[in-house]
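STRUCTURE REQUEST FORM
Protein name: DUF3566 domain-containing protein
Source organism: Corynebacterium aquilae DSM 44791
Requested output: C-alpha cells
Priority: standard
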Amino acid sequence: MATRKVSIQHISAPSVFRVAVYFGLAAEIAIIIATTVVYMVMDAIGIWTKLNDIIGGAGGEEFISLGLAVSVAAALGGVFVLMSIVLAPLAAVLYNQMASPLGTIDVTLSN
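Status: completed
Returned output:
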C-alpha cells in the first residue's frame, strides 16, 4: 500500500468561510427539525399541557407553544451560525500566521 506524507502549509480563509456557512446552515436546519420533533413527541405525551397548566394557572393560557420552541431554537442556532462563521476564518488566519514559525501539520495519506 502506497503512502504519501502531505504538509498543510496554508489554509484559504475564504474557503473556510464558505464551509463554515454551509455547515452552519445545515446545523441550523438540523436544530430546528430536532426541536420540532422533540416538541411534538413531548406534546403527544402530554408534558406541554401539564406544564402550561402549571405556568398558566387558572387562566388556562398556553405559554409554551410550538412557535415559541422553534423561535428559541432558531435564535440560538442563529447565534451558533454567526459564531462559527466568524471564528472559523479567524482560526484559518491564525493557523496561517503560526504555521511558518512553529511548523505545519503533517498528514499521511494512504490508498
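Reviewer notes: The two ends are 6 Å apart (CA to CA). The chain has one domain: 3-110.
Form closed.
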